[in-house]
Design goal:
Two copies of one chain form a homodimer. Chain A is 17% helix and 40% strand. Chain A has 151 residues and is of the alpha+beta class. The first copy, chain A, is globular, with a radius of gyration of 15 Å. The interface between A and B is large, with 43 and 43 residues. Strand 5 of chain A pairs antiparallel with strand 5 of chain B, so a sheet runs across the interface.
Chain lengths: 151, 151
């Protein structure tokens, strides 16, 4: 059985509200490799709305951010570019909202690395509800020393 | 006593997970005019973390989005540019993360309208923890027919 990207992280980096397995109040997004891209499915909760029946843009931004940083860190690991002294965190996030996203259906995120550039990895992401492209995202991540973030 | 921008909206548009007064599970962000800019203070909950002690980027994106759309709609109202047949929703959101944001302190959002351009209003936003600029955001909103979103 495949292990989610986020579940391979050290315990101390597994409390993220968006994707940490140790955050019982969080969204617990799980991302998986599928060939050269990563995929995650997210089932919205009833209260994650923007308007009745429509998924909230902040929730969409959160799962794109988490799927993006998950992809960046997993890609760095694949390429031998990270170690105990480095991790990739979000430097900037851009989300474009194309269509209202239904609240009552799962959404599917697909992402891939667009660019490795020095200490930055840029990931692009799509969010579909069924066959409808509802949002796109770009997550620029920067390599940092984990000691700055994890005390 | 000042009324929050979001609390002046119709009941049907007050369920947003980020800022709706009718969403008991939501963040309930409240924005206020302060001269030509809008201000909101947000107190993170314990589980809103990225890493222990650090506020989550998805939560930051959510409150910037809600403060931005709140500002756009309130500015449109001030200028007589909206009515029952129009509202401004997010077309795109960009957030730049400058510094880790402490989880255990309130954050302050300040925003203003950068541009009115046809049916779009662009809002820029800063997020401070104390005197530290931790994030900036730009929210491009588009004027839509509420009937498309509210059934």
């Amino acid at each position: 059985m495949k292990v989610p990207i986020q579940d391979e992280w050290p315990e101390a980096t597994s409390f993220c509200w968006g994707c940490g397995k140790n955050n019982s109040h969080g969204l617990q997004l799980k991302s998986y490799w599928e060939d050269e891209e990563t995929v995650a499915t997210f089932i919205p909760q009833e209260h994650h709305l923007a308007f009745p029946g429509i998924l909230n843009g902040g929730i969409i931004s959160t799962i794109i951010d988490c799927h993006g940083t998950g992809t960046a860190n997993a890609a760095a690991k694949k390429m031998g570019r990270n170690d105990a002294n480095s991790m990739y965190v979000t430097a900037s996030l851009t989300v474009k909202f194309k269509k209202p996203t239904p609240l009552d259906k799962p959404v599917t995120l697909r992402a891939h690395v667009k660019e490795f550039d020095g200490d930055r990895i840029t990931v692009t992401c799509t969010l579909y509800s069924g066959n409808t492209l509802c949002a796109t995202g770009e997550v620029v991540t920067a390599c940092v020393d984990p000691a700055v973030f994890i005390k």
